[in-house]
Amino acid sequence: xxxxxxxxxxxxxxxxxxxxxxxxxxxxxxxxxxxxxxxxxxxxxxxxxxxxxxxxxxxxxxxxxxxxxxxxxxxxxxxxxxxxxxxxxxxxxxxxxxxxxxxxxxxxxxxxxxxxxxxxxxxxxxxxxxxxxxxxxxxxxxxxxxxxxxxxxxxxxxxxxxxxxxxxxxxxxxxxxxxxxxxxxxxxxxxxxxxxxxxxxxxxxxxxxxxxxxxxxxxxxxxxxxxxxxxxxxxxxxxxxxxxxxxxxxxxxxxxxxxxxxxxxxxxxxxxxxxxxxxxxxxxxxxxxxxxxxxxxxxxxxxxxxxxxxxxxxxxxxxxxxxxxxxxxxxxxxxxxxxxxxxxxxxxxxxxxxxxxxxxxxxxxxxxxxxxxxxxxxxxxxxxxxxxxxxxxxxxxx
Length: 398
Fold this sequence. Notes:
Helices cover 50% and strands 10% of the residues. It is α+β, with helices and mostly antiparallel strands. Helix 8 packs parallel to helix 18, helix 11 crosses helix 14 and helix 12 crosses helix 14.
């Protein structure tokens, strides 16, 4: 009998990698009782992400919109303009206009500031027992994305609260309480950002993303609504994924101390180490698409109109592509991690996220000769698609 995939199965929450292994071995291209499809093999997930017949335009789906408050509710008016949820020419246009400040050269300008932020937070942490999430993994990317966007320091906590609430819009299930919260938060963030934009008009363009996005490029310009919507998306994605990459990655290193010591002994491993950690326990666990034509994947036909979930964390443990997938191999280079997606929607912020994580891991290992996990029972966040720790208590010794 084939395994069944159920988002609410306690076995999934208890051991998701074991759950995915059983599904991958018995029914890797799996049609659930609810009608959507689930992919657990690397090649199948990669094919979905790269297919010209897989759509991200969920806001145009009436059922998807209704579970989030209806097509005219505040949060739907916002996500309808998110780069992440566009296809084709609309996606290419938005990506071109937003990508102006996500080039490696632009991000490299942030390197000294990221180092300064990390060192300042480490100085404040000192020795002894700390919570890596609260004291470093969360405040660092919030500060970085705040500076990238030009959000004043005193407003970043409010922006994080607003965007965190709206971020639940991408989860497969949205509860009534979260639907209410996200539709309250989006207008509050919108009013705040429109006021901030008004204060920037007429001034010389600054070197932050908000100011750049307000400028035209090759005769084209983002609308006010497009700027607000995508700043909301970038603020949320720009810190939430990095928090998870650092927290999940540090825990993985502590659970496999031989990998931690290998990285300590050879810092040149850091670039491949960050990608390996993202494969092992990715900050984003799934990518969902709508089939715009029949898709031939893994020997099965997924019909036009079907919703398909590519499980990034399952794909990262596929033994057909990653020998000994449950072991951290920090020198591993192939195949490329899918943690930052692939195809047209490859993550614009991948260079920044990798730089932030590498800076944190490098400076932690340089500063502390001993890093120990204080306890094993670690709370995780309530997001399904942004899987990460709420706390990571460590004991640090120079």
